[in-house]
Amino acid sequence: MSTDPINPEDGTAKNAATDSKATATAANDDEAKGTGAKSTEAKSTEAKSAEAESTEAKSAEAESAEAESAEAESTEAESTEAKSAGADKAAPKSVWAKDADDPSAATDLVATLEDEIADLNDQLLRALAEAENVRRRARKEKEDTGRFAISDFARDMLGIADNLHRAIETIPDAVLSEDHELNGFYQGVQLVERDVLQAFERHGIVQISPLGEKFDHNFHQAMFEIEDHDAEPGTVVQLMAPGYVIHGRLLRPAMVGLAKAGPKKDAEARGATGAAKDGKGPSGAADTPADADNGNGNGNGNGAAAAKGAKAD
């Protein structure tokens, strides 16, 4: 195996070449670093410039907004002042506002205020009274509605009660004593009539039977007049149909026949009138002053009463 001899000059040349390459590489690195530094510095400068421009723009916008706000506030203040001035001109000052600064008008001011207070108190009392009247009327209407709601139904039931009473009156007593079966039926009808009248009373419906009473146009209806020497004229002597009231209010008037003066009473009345004209009583004797005063010159007063009754007839 052969071995080449080492040449010292070749090693030196190789070392020189290697050093040259290293120097070139270092130079290139330094150049690249310088370029990158310049680029970074340029970018930083641009960023700072952009930030400054943005700050200036924001500052300008803020100044513009403040100016607009100040202008709006000024306009609103002017409008408010104008409205206040218009209101002051439109609304006149009250009595106490005009005279508050005038000591001499203090008495008149107090009197005016007292009059206004009295007027307001009067209005309040009237309003309270009206409200109480409304409540009272509403309560009464409610009670009346509850009490008289069955009036129409009750009025229809009166015919049934009348027919039951007519059925009882049509059976003579002589027949009842002979026919026991009919007597039992008669008593059953009487029980039904009694139950109907008791049911009426439970609901505030009361029967009116005015036989022997004076005629009352509020509760009676006159059907005819008959001569009756034993009763005063205008007295109820016959009852055609009883009347009814519901809680004191007329439901149906009683249909009645009235007594009127007969020929005998007319003659007595005419005789009493003649005696009164002669200035003598029934005995033919002259009236005493006391009798004359009591009877107005018509005897002992009986003649005047008879004459008054005849005139009423």
Tell me briefly what this model is:
The chain has helices at residues 8-90, 95-99, 106-148, 151-169, 173-178, 180-202, 263-278, 289-295, 302-312; strands spanning 205-208, 220-227, 236-241, 243-246, 249-252, 254-260. With 313 residues, the protein is mostly helical.
Describe the structure.
By secondary structure, the protein is mainly alpha-helical. Among the domains are: 105-148; 150-203; 208-260, Head domain of nucleotide exchange factor GrpE (Nucleotide Exchange Factor Grpe, Chain A, domain 2), CATH 2.30.22; 261-313, no CATH class. 68% of the residues lie in helices and 11% in strands. The strands form two sheets. It has a three-stranded antiparallel sheet. α4 (151-169) packs antiparallel against α6 and α7 (263-278) crosses α9 (302-312). The longest helix is centred in the N-terminal third of the chain and has 83 residues, at 8-90.
Helices and strands, with pairings:
Blueprint: H1 8-90, H2 95-99, H3 106-148, H4 151-169, H5 173-178, H6 180-202, E1 205-208, E2 220-227, E3 236-241, E4 243-246, E5 249-252, E6 254-260, H7 263-278, H8 289-295, H9 302-312
Parallel strand pairs: 2-6
Antiparallel strand pairs: 1-4, 3-6, 4-5
Strand content: 5-15%
Total strands: the figure is: 6
Helix count from the secondary structure assignment: 9
Helix/strand/pairing category: mainly alpha
What is the average of the pLDDT values? 74
Distance between the termini: 193 Å
Q: How much helicity do the residues have?
A: 55-70%
Question: Which segments are poorly predicted (pLDDT under 50) over 5 or more consecutive residues?
Answer: 1-9, 280-313
- The largest beta-sheet arranges its strands as 1-4-5
